[in-house]
Amino acid sequence: MKKTGFTILELLLAIVIMSILTALTVKTLSSLRMANRDGKRITDIRLIQGALESFYRDVGMYPTTITAGSPLSYSLTTYLPHVPFNPQPVDNGCTATTTYTYSQDENGASYSLSFCLGNKTSDVGAGANTAVPGDIVTCLPNCFMSCNTGVYNGVPNTGADGCGGVCTNVQSCPTNYTCLDNHCLVD
């Protein structure tokens, strides 16, 4: 009489193969979830940019603040029913925050909307990014053109007017980058 069944070696081999397949599946799903959150971030930012441009066209300046979860409106016009929250979990290597970081310049003629991506998504780079009117730039934060007189990148710098009114007396962009709207952009 012949016994039927599996040997311990066959069972162990089956368990190892199933463990490997499970690990690959979990890793793939995790990557897909991060990519979906990054895609949602890009969609959110472009949606907010469109609402901000409509606001600017009607009001003549950008709003001083925007609040996630609240409408973006002025007078009786609603430009965005709910400003989106940053998708959670924030697993993109940047500071964990549930909101996008918005700031308006001092006269309302410009804004910056900071966010972070875990991976390059479409034409937007991984890491810290900033939306400015009409564009999204992958940037290095905290650069400022010097307000000292002299020449910067071949352009005479005459104080505050020579660098857009940002006076910090430092210039912290690396080689092959230019400081524009307080961000280092690739030349």
TrEMBL record:
One biological-process term from Gene Ontology? protein secretion by the type II secretion system
Protein name per the record: Type II secretion system protein GspG C-terminal domain-containing protein
Q: Which organism is it from?
A: Candidatus Falkowbacteria bacterium CG10_big_fil_rev_8_21_14_0_10_37_14
Task: List the Gene3D superfamilies.
Answer: Glycoprotein, Type 4 Pilin
Name of one Pfam family that matches: N_methyl
- Is-annotated flag, keyword Lyase? no
Q: Which GO terms describe its cellular component?
A: type II protein secretion system complex
Write out the transmembrane intervals.
6-26
InterPro entries per UniProt: Bac_GSPG_pilin (IPR000983), N_methyl_site (IPR012902), Pilin-like (IPR045584)
